[in-house]
Amino acid sequence: MDKQALYEHIIAKRSYLCVGLDSDITLIPDFLRSGKDPVFEFNRQIIDATADFCVAYKPNIAFYEAMGGKGWETLQKTLEYIPKSHFTIADAKRGDIGNTSGLYARAFFDKSASGLDFDAVTVAPYMGYDSVSPFLRYRDKWTILLALTSNPGSADFQRLETSTGKIYETVLKTSQEWEGAERLMYVVGATQAADLAEIRRIIPEHFLLVPGVGAQGGSLEEVSRHGMNRSVGLLVNSSRGIIYAGNGSDFAEQAKAEAKKIQEEMALYLDKFL
Amino acid sequence: MDKQALYEHIIAKRSYLCVGLDSDITLIPDFLRSGKDPVFEFNRQIIDATADFCVAYKPNIAFYEAMGGKGWETLQKTLEYIPKSHFTIADAKRGDIGNTSGLYARAFFDKSASGLDFDAVTVAPYMGYDSVSPFLRYRDKWTILLALTSNPGSADFQRLETSTGKIYETVLKTSQEWEGAERLMYVVGATQAADLAEIRRIIPEHFLLVPGVGAQGGSLEEVSRHGMNRSVGLLVNSSRGIIYAGNGSDFAEQAKAEAKKIQEEMALYLDKFL
Predict the structure, then answer these.
(1) What residues of chain B, 208 to 267, have a C-beta less than 8 Å from chain A?
(2) Nearest-angstrom CA–CA distance, A59 and B17
(3) C-alpha span between A9 and A1 (Å, rounded)
(4) Residue A181, pLDDT above cutoff 80
(5) Is the pLDDT of residue A215 over 80?
(6) Residue B161 parent element (H or E)
(7) Which of A142, A189, B246, B272 has the most CB atoms lying inside 10 A of its own CB?
(8) Which range of residues forms the domain containing residue A214?
(9) What is the dihedral of CA B25, B30, B36, B39, to 10 degrees?
(10) What is the rounded distance in angstroms from the CA atom of residue B234 to the CA atom of residue B228?
(11) What's the number of domains chain B is made of?
C-alpha cells in the first residue's frame, strides 16, 4: 500500500486509528477458551467490530510467539482475515546483522516463504544501517523505525545527548540519509507528545506510528495537534484500550464502541489540524 | 544452567565455542531438501558432529521465523535434540514495552506456553530498563544484552559519544545497576576486539557472547587475549564458518573438522590466558 492509498483511506474513513491486536491467550474472555483457536476467534470478532472505524491493524508478534508454532498459524489466519483495504503492521521490533535482517524481512514480507505478507514491520535501530537496509530493499513495503518510544525506559538511552542531538534525534536525522528512506516511518510514543513539534521539524513528511494512547495514557489531542502534517502523517495505535474494553460475551460490541469514540474524536482533529 | 556449571563444562571440554545454527533452508545441502524437515535433519547432523567440541548452541530465530509456523516446530525439535549439557541461546534480539517483553520472555523461557525452554535469549537495549527487566525476572535464565555488535552499522549509534561515555559503554554501565544484573551477559562482536580491554574494565565479571569469528573476520586470538576473565567469561560463536564448511553429503564431517580446529585453538588460549 503506498502513501497516497493510505492517505485516501484515512480521509474517506475520517480516521487514523490503528487497532493493536495484542491478543493474550490468558486475557481474552473466558468463554472463548473452549474453541479450537480462541485467539483467532477473538481477533475475528474484534476485526469485524472495528474495521469501519480504523485504517490499520497491528498485531504485536510477541503475543503470537508466546504460543509457539500454533501462534504463528493464528497470526497468519488473522492477517488473512484483515480486509485488504487496511494497512497491516507486524509489530516485531526486529533487527540483526544484514544477512539475518534479510531473513526477518523474508519472515514478514514474503508470503511464499513464511505465509505472511504484512505492509510494514517495526524495526529497532540499535545496530545501525546495515541492520535496517534489508527491510528497505522491499520497494512496496514500509519499515517503521523505533525513534522515541512510549515507555519509561525510553529515557535510559534514547534521550542521551550527543554532539548531533539526543540519540533518538540522531536516529531520525541519520536514517534520512539511508537509501530507501522514503519507505521509512517512525515510532514516537503518544506519551512523548511534548517532543513532537521538534520531531516534526526533523521529519516533516514521514508517517509516525504512535502507540500509547489508551492504556499508556498519552493524549490524542496533543499528538494530533503537534504531529499531524499535510498527509495526516499519523497512525495512532490503541491496543488494550480497545480490545479489552469488555470482558464478557459482548466484548466485540464494547471494542466497537471504544473504536468509534476514538474515530469520532479523530474526525474533529482532521477538521481542525489538517 | 548457572555460571559455575557453564564454567565447568568449558574447562572439561577445553572449549568456549558456541555453534550458531543459522540454518537457512535455501543454503543447506541440496540432497537434504527432499526430506520431511530438511532444516531439522541438517541441524541434527551438525549437532551430532560438533557437540564434542562446543559448549553451546545458538539458533538465530530469524532463520526459523522465515519458514512460518513450520519453522517454529523445526526450532523446537532442534532445541529438544541439543544435549542437556549444552548451553542454549535463542538469538532473537527482542525487546518491547514491559508488558510485551514479558510475552517475549514467555516465548523463549516457558515451555508450557510455547514449547521452548532456552537457557538464554539475546535482547536489544534501545527501549531501556523496563523493556529488559521482564527477562531478568526469570531467575534461572540468562539475558544477553546487545552492547557493541559485530556489524559495520554498529558505528552509527553505538559509538556516539555522550557525557557518560559512548552509547555502548553507557549500556554496559547503566545495566549494571538493574535488578537481576547478575543474570546479564553481553554481546560484543569479535570484530571489536580492540575495544575489549576497555569493555572488560567496565564489566570484569560478566560473560560475553562474541559473534563474528569466522565469516565476519574477527580474530579468536585477540578476543581471547583481551576478553577472557577468571571464569573464562567468553562464549565465542561461529555460525556459517562451521555449518556451511561443506556443502555435499559430507557436510557434517566438514563442520566437525572446523569445530575441532577452533576447539584446539581455544584449548591453547585457555592454557595461555586463563
Answers:
(1) 211, 216
(2) 37
(3) 11
(4) yes
(5) no
(6) strand B161-162
(7) A189
(8) 3-273
(9) -30
(10) 6
(11) 1
